[in-house]
Amino acid sequence: MKIGMIGLGRMGKNMADRLRTGGHQVVGYDIAPDSGRDVDSLQALVQALQAPRVIWVMVPAGKPIESTLDQLGDLMERGDLVVDGGNTRFTQDQEHAQALAAKGIGLVDVGTSNGIWGKEKGYALMVGGSDQDVARIQPILDTLKPEGDYGLVHAGGTGAGHYAKMVHNGIEYGMMQALAEGYAVLEASDLIKEPGEVVESWRKGSVIQSWLLDLLAQALKEDPHLSGIAGKADETGETKWMIADALELGVPTPAITSALYARQSSKIEDPMTMKVVSALRSAFGGHPIVRE
Length: 292
Fold this sequence. Notes:
Elements: E1 2-6, H1 10-21, E2 25-29, H2 42-48, E3 54-57, H3 63-75, E4 81-84, H4 90-101, E5 106-113, H5 118-121, E6 124-128, H6 131-136, H7 138-144, E7 152-156, H8 160-188, H9 195-201, H10 211-222, H11 237-249, H12 254-266, H13 272-285
Parallel strand pairs: 1-2, 1-3, 3-4, 4-5, 6-7
Antiparallel strand pairs: 5-6
Helix pairs in contact: 8-11, 8-12, 9-10
Protein name: Decarboxylating 6-phosphogluconate dehydrogenase
Family: Belongs to the 6-phosphogluconate dehydrogenase family. Belongs to the HIBADH-related family.
Pfam families: 6PGD (PF00393), NAD_binding_2 (PF03446)
């Protein structure tokens, strides 16, 4: 199958490579000249594909995806299909689908997971869209997913793929935070000789054995006590969106919400919240204030 790929960054390039290895023809485009792109413009990309076209887009949510879809809407033809494999908010998928449908262009949203490991092991794919549109890209999905009867789900209609990925990322936050807090306790205890050895022992036969635990064990082998890593972690929009939707649905998500707050707090050098708390403790209880 011949397909266009927009966005040849860490994820997009690896996906294009996996597709080529699987026997597909990929025409790649990226705004960066040194990306290994095959064409140097969106117009050239569309022209290089025969109608009805399929173009997979791997660009960040927000302005990049908005701009790309607007341009594709003007360049592509009735019967063509766009696949948004980024992390677009599910409500925006529905808006994008309506705008493209007015021009006879279909949209499939695909939540994609497995980061840098996907090229070799395959990607977990969560797909949203009509049965007809999803069937059109089935050969592509079959090549990108891991081997075996798992790693691919048609989650529902437009937006369902990104919704499933949004929830997936929220769960990921909670799992990583639990591992992080547990390891921090091991590090702080005088009873534990080598925290890394404890983590290593959990990898087999333990209820918490997992790929994330394996990655933590490997990180500790490479950098015992993680002394070379700053205690800061970025957070992306998907978990905020999940928590917001969970509030609308009336579903409590305390673990995931706590994990999000922990990441946000990690980026604040001198949090205003703690200044306020310190001032109030001094005012009502006479507790000492640490001055800068």
